Amino acid sequence: MSSLCPMSSSLLAKTSPTPQPNNALNSPDSQSLLDSVSRRFDIEEMGRELCEDRFDVEGCCVTMVPSRKKGENLVLPNLKLKVLIEAIRMVLEIVYDERFLTFSYGGRVGMGRHTAIRYLKNSVENPSWWFSVTFDREKFDDRHVNKLCLFIEEKIKDGFFIGIIKRLFECEVVGIELGGCYLGRGFPQESGLSSILINIYLNGFDKEIQDMRLRKSQENPKFESEELVSMSRMFYKPVKMFVVRYLDEILVITSGSKMLTMDLKNWALKYLEGSLELKVDKMKTAIHSAVSENISFLGMELQAVPPSVLHPPMTEKAMRARKKYLRQKEVRALELKNARERNRKKLGMKILQHVFKKLKQSDGFKFEFQIENKVREIFTTWADEVVQNFLGSLEERWEWHRKLTAGDFLSLRHIRDQLPQELVEAYDKFQEQVDKYLSPVQARKALEKEERRMEEEEERKYAKRTVEDLTRLCVKVDAPIELVRKAVKMAGFTNSMGRPRPIKLLIALEDTDIIKWYAGVGRRWLDFFCCCHNFKMVKIVVTYHLRFSCILTLAEKHESTKLEAIKHYTKDLKVSDLNGNEEVYFPTEREVKMMGDQNLSDPRPVDGALSLALIRLAYDEPSYSCIAHFCDRMDTVFYRVRLLQNRLNVNPSVEEKWVSGMGAIHESLNRKCLPLCSDHINDLYTGKITLQDIDCTSFVDVD
């Protein structure tokens, strides 16, 4: 691996945080990007400083002091150091991304939470036992950093590059804390290097456990279904191991015995505590039955269930409703077809009348007679086709035959002898045609055949479903509804009785900003839990609790009633911009209803949006530049950061008073004032960007 110094300038010129709207980064002209960066610092000079080992890492760090006396300080990088950190991340990604294993998720492109959940739902079969490795809350110290640097040196022979990483850890601007609840959530205390460094540190563990999986697969080969049928009537379930790791969350699944799972767990704990020198919470790292117990992973609950639980058969009521719908659909299609035929006939008659009128005036009666015969032939053919289509339905044939054969007195001999022979022969010919087209025997046989086919199909499906329920187990993913309801109550969306209530802290915001804040929380919940089996329960929380809490907040602000607020904003919470155009930020009821598991993404949890409130300030001092990365706009507005844990005076580390598994933004940012332009405050409200995407070190002190 070549040294970082020769390519530092080119890397730094290409490096930037995630592009945002109305930003110089979106310009196709790279020169405009370079100009935007150069207004803040000189890229070429920064490259020379790196090559000559003169770059001052400590000088680019800003210490954020918390408001509490017992609080911990937070060291954040300024924009210049963030560019260097992003350049280092790009180098590590180029070197290591293809070397990471397929079950290593997090901090990688296209390998997010939903991809991991999709793998669990589609690939894991017949799980018997599983356990989740839980680490004690511990920050990386010198031992871990030195071991990490040794791992990196195996692929990158660059002492200067390794030295920069060590200096970043020494300055505490880059830190890794396993067992916490802030990784992959967009919190400012998480460095851009944390995710890939965790993957590098645990890559050796991944390779060892992958070798164990391969050995177990060789010991238990997979047979084809035809071979099993020829061998015996017994079902064969090979012993398999499945592993999924998202950053510091590790889930191990086996389809074998509990003893096998215990041996695997003991080996994993020995490797993590011995070779990697990590502290594992042995009480929480317990083996659970996949069938009788659920397990928490990635903020969701997993459990092994039969396939019929995930895809239940239709009930009799649903089948009747479906049949009714299909009948109505056929009737509507027939009505449309008849309407088209009727309109076509009317149009043809109009055209023919016009043609006859012109022919009478030109060619005379003979040609007119030929045209009339041709038209009669066309209409006869058309009438035959209509009759054949009409007689195509079996049920209609049965009904017509019943009507035509009712009161069949001409079949009696003493009646036939008294009638003219021509009439009797005409009747016999007519009866032959009726029997030919409307025979009840043929119709009855066809209907009985169709009924038998439907019964056999239902029996076949039932047998297949029963066998699958007895021989297969799948992974069901559920959203933790109780934790979601606890978070809704703690944030102030509902009262003690679980009914929506207003949040008075947001009354100081504009109407549009209030709706955007609620929309950001609601959309993050929907995006995060859209892959869950009980996603409908999350939809109810967003559609009812959040929507009406927003309506009540708007009503409280304008001192009106709930009905008046609904009449003004509607239930979809529509607002008008300066030009009078209606805009909808909160997901509509129809949009929520149509949502589902449709995309593979890495959605951020709701923690950052739920625990953060930005209150607009009335400040008349000269405006500052927007602190979003590389944004040059000066028409900014000051917003004060209000954190949920400080408003409630709650310590997030105490699970009894906080929501289990929910992270929190570092307390040092509480009550800091951030100048932001209209576009970036909109993106921050709606969850398109996080506090990681802005330069929090450029805050302004406003009393």
From TrEMBL:
Q: Please verify whether the record's keywords include Coiled coil.
A: yes
**GO (cellular component) term, any one:** mitochondrion
Q: Give every Reverse transcriptase domain span.
A: 1-302
The GO biological-process annotations, alphabetized, read as: homing of group II introns; mitochondrial mRNA processing
Coiled-coil segments on the chain, per record = 444-473
> What are the boundaries of the region Disordered?
1-31
- State one Pfam family annotation: Intron_maturas2
SUPFAM superfamilies assigned to the protein according to its UniProt record, in alphabetical order: DNA/RNA polymerases
Q: Where is the composition biased (Polar residues)?
A: 13-31
GO molecular function annotations of the record: RNA-directed DNA polymerase activity
InterPro entries to which the protein is assigned, alphabetical? DNA/RNA_pol_sf, Domain_X, RT_dom
Cited PROSITE patterns = RT_POL
Q: Where is the composition biased (Low complexity)?
A: 1-12
Keywords attached to this entry: Coiled coil
Q: What is this protein called?
A: Reverse transcriptase domain-containing protein
Question: Organism, per UniProt?
Answer: Fagus sylvatica
